[in-house]
Amino acid sequence: MKENRFYKTERLCSKKDFEQLFTGSNSFFVYPFKVVYRTVDYSEKEYLKIGISVSKRNFKRAVKRNYIKRRIREAFRLNKGQLKLLLEERRVGLQVVLVYVSKETQEYADIEPKIKIVLERLAKNASKDAGVDTSSAD
Q1: Could you tell me how far CA 70 lies from the centroid of its own chain?
Q2: pLDDT reading at 10 higher than 60
Q3: Contact between residue 36 and residue 20 where contact means Cβ atoms under 8 Å apart
Q4: pTM to 2 decimals?
Q5: Range list of H helices, the chain
Q6: Which of 47, 77, 83, 136 is least enclosed, having the fewest CB within 10 Å?
């Protein structure tokens, strides 16, 4: 059976980790997300950590911000399996922040395919950072 829980150990909570992510890390853009990530040392329980950010400037009400974050978390929770397997196989840790940059709320049906694209790119980039060539895998 697939493991679909979103564990507390998968949440990026530390202020220090956020600062390190935004100062010395890689990023790419998949609308409506700016994805900031960095590879870290592999740890058995904490090899994938994610943080979600929705700007207070774009969404004044906390209800709207939380609504968007719930949709993003749900899409991540349901689609993280392949990325976790790849990271575990390659023995690479990954810290990720998804910054929601759109000025309007989007439906879950619009967010989920974008999260899938983000996770695929993260898998490819994490493998590249670990020194593994994934171009011949297909």
Answers
A1: 14
A2: yes
A3: no
A4: 0.85
A5: 15-23, 62-79, 81-90, 108-129
A6: 136
Per-domain residue ranges for the chain? 13-127
25-33 long-range Cβ contacts below 8 angstroms, 24+ apart: 26/125, 26/129, 28/121, 28/125, 30/114, 30/117, 30/118, 30/121, 31/101, 31/102, 31/114, 32/100, 32/101, 32/102, 32/106, 32/111, 32/114, 33/98, 33/99, 33/100, 33/101, 33/114, 33/115, 33/118
Look at the alpha carbons of 138, 36, 83, 42 in this order and tell me if their dihedral is positive or negative.
Answer: positive
Q: Distance between CA 51 and CA 124 in Å, rounded?
A: 20
> What is the token pair recorded at 117?
């694209």
The class that CATH gives domain 13-127 is alpha beta
Question: Taking the mean position of all CA atoms in its chain, how far away is CA 88?
Answer: 16
Q: Residue 82 above 50 pLDDT?
A: yes
Burial class (CB within 10 angstroms; exposed 0-12, middle 13-18, buried 19+) of 107: exposed
